[in-house]
Amino acid sequence: MKITVITLFPEMLDGFLNASILKRAQEKSAAQIECVQLREYAVDIYGTIDDRPFGGAAGMVLMAEPVIKAVKKVKTSSSKVILTSARGSLFTQEKAKELATHEHLIIVAGHYEAVDERVMDEIDEELSIGDYILTGGELPAGVIIDAIVRLLPGVLKKEQATHDESFSHVSLEELKKAIGGDPILHALDKKGITQVKLLEYPHYTRPQNLEGKDVPDILLSGHHAEIRKWQLQQAFSITKKRRPDLLS
User: Fold this and answer.
1) 164-247: CATH, from 1.10.287.110, 3.30.70.1140, 1.10.1740.10, 1.10.1270.20
2) What single-letter DSSP state applies at residue 55?
3) According to the annotation, is 129 in a ligand binding site?
4) What is its main location (predicted)?
5) Which residues contact 107 (CB under 8 A, 6 or more apart)?
């Protein structure tokens, strides 16, 4: 998979993209990630890429021409173009899985107050990472890249690591067997829902006892079916408390 980030500040991503899992993914050729300096497509010799908005709104607007030129330069028939934007659709784990199937992603890191609306003919989708405002789109671009690349085949040492984690789907029938007659599960069943998204269950490692706090006995039992039942019970309890919207 190839990922191209069009940005005014590639230095914000350099260290992030060349460390840990992302570095390993590139070394394994599972992912090729590049940053394109938007200012190279400026409209004049002074490197101008922004201007004041028509209508008198606050802030500066990223000009359409440099963005369009940059996108067209790197775009191919297999490219999907994303703009990071506070007004975009919310980026989710499901969206990460969908984007991980593409051959080439182009991520335009938005900046300033907004991007000239006339770039939208070149944009396939606007994505936001949350209901808050950042100074630029570089951090959202990094978040999107990280979430996608870890899903690519061969990137993580144990691919099961991407299955049993927060926002993974669990069979409602399996959950009912582990939990019992919870009214929330009964309501989901009546709606015909067969899969439920849960937050992840607690994890423990050595030492077995830490300042009087023990690892739960069930995790030391070696009884895999009972351990799975405990994990589902814990995941359901945490989800119900912290993210009830996932169970609505």
Assistant:
1) 1.10.1270.20
2) T
3) yes
4) cytoplasm
5) 3, 4, 5, 6, 82, 83, 84, 137, 141, 144, 145
| pLDDT (tens digit per residue) in 191-229 | 999 999 999 999 999 999 999 999 999 999 999 999 999
Reduced to 3 states, what is the DSSP secondary structure of residue 71? helix
Q: What is the DSSP string of 165-201?
A: STTEEEEHHHHHHHH-S-HHHHHHHHTT--EEEEPPP
> Is 134 a known ligand-binding residue?
yes
User: Interhelix angle for 183-190 vs 172-179, to 10°?
Assistant: 150
- 130 belongs to an annotated ligand binding site: yes
Q: Is residue 42 packed enough to be buried (19+ CB in 10 Å), middle (13-18) or exposed (0-12)? A: middle
Whether 163 has a pLDDT exceeding 80, the answer reads: no
192 is in an annotated binding site: no
For residue 236, the model assigns a pLDDT of: 97
